[in-house]
Amino acid sequence: MDRIMEHSDRLTATERRIAEVLAGEPQTIAFGTVAQVAERAGTSGPSVVRLAVKLGYEGFVALQAAVQQELARQLGPAHDRIRQRPPTDLLSRVMETEQDNVTRTFAGISAEVLERVVSLLADRRRHVWVLPGDVTLPVGLSLSSQLSQLREGVSLLGGSEAAIGRSLGGAESHDVLVAVDIRRYERSLVSTVQLARDHGMAVVAITDSPLSPLAARGAMAFFVAASGVGPFDSMTGALCLANLLVGATAARLRQGATRRLDAIEDAWGALSALVAEPGGSEPLTAGLLEAPAGLLDGPTGADGMGPGGRGGDVLDWSRPALPREAGAEA
Predict the structure, then answer these.
(1) Which of 22, 63, 72, 176 could form a disulfide bond with 52, CB atoms 3.0-4.6 angstroms apart?
(2) In the predicted model, what is the mean pLDDT of residues 274-300?
(3) pTM attached to this predicted model
(4) In the prediction, which pLDDT does 70 show?
């Protein structure tokens, strides 16, 4: 916040710790109590209140209201954020925001929690169940896909509660559930996490705040920054965290993972599944990735789509497009 920058040279060591929570975990300030903020900063409640007054607020409640207002602007529903005027310097704003998301995400990682989680993910005796929400699905897909190439026993959960329940019917109490979701938190996902906890499974939460319902009751938690410049939250910090977990697990499972990756590569080769050869030493098959002539041509509307904003003529996928004659009208 701007007020922290204005008073940075006047903050005590204790106040700086509280300010770090304010800057790095605004959700904790916005939705927590004085006691919870003090616990996160390793200080006392009166110190939190004194910092609020030093920053120019009447007290903690006024500071909390200001943070809530700012979060409402940054993290509100997409249908609200789309109505905000976009920044003029969009490219630089997105670059700065995404870099900040990664920095804040990694700065908040506990080395102890990371070690415990990687030990669980690398334990082949434990099945790993990955449960993302709808908005965090890219993170869950990336994490589960790459972990499953390193070891067996990794499943991506999705679909209805009935489908998830059917899959978890084969889970055991020593298994691991990795839950990935951010505010506003899907109700069914929270219920599934609670069910896993009640049955003794180890729960790893990838979420956005210590106050997230996923992080409650002893879960090992990573907190990701998800600020977005546009109407949607960013998954960049969470994806980078997933890369860290996969990389650390690969280092732990190097010998066994090598054999598994070799077997996967052999299967891909037998199926001719990929265009490029291993290592990229051979050129791509000539023309294989070229679009058929005229496929991408056609009249467009003001929004870059066809007339009416829905793309022009319907493509006939049963036959390739014919090349246009020189001088023919588009």
Answers:
(1) 63
(2) 58
(3) 0.68
(4) 74
